[in-house]
């Protein structure tokens, strides 16, 4: 997650007070950060595997005011 947030992911959305902060779990925050990183870097050849910590899905994980970006 540190790599994703340090490499252009919009991690502010999953920070305290952000619309994706709850649930306050590492899995939920990493899910948002990994998606943000992937969406911003896939055109430049970025990967989405994160050493086996991530996977591609077909269902939109957005909930309430937390909107996952799809570009």
TrEMBL record:
UniProt-recorded name of the protein: Uncharacterized protein
Lineage, opening ranks: Eukaryota, Viridiplantae, Streptophyta, Embryophyta, Tracheophyta
Annotated Gene3D superfamilies: 1.20.58.1040
Entry GO CC: plasmodesma
Domain of life (superkingdom): Eukaryota
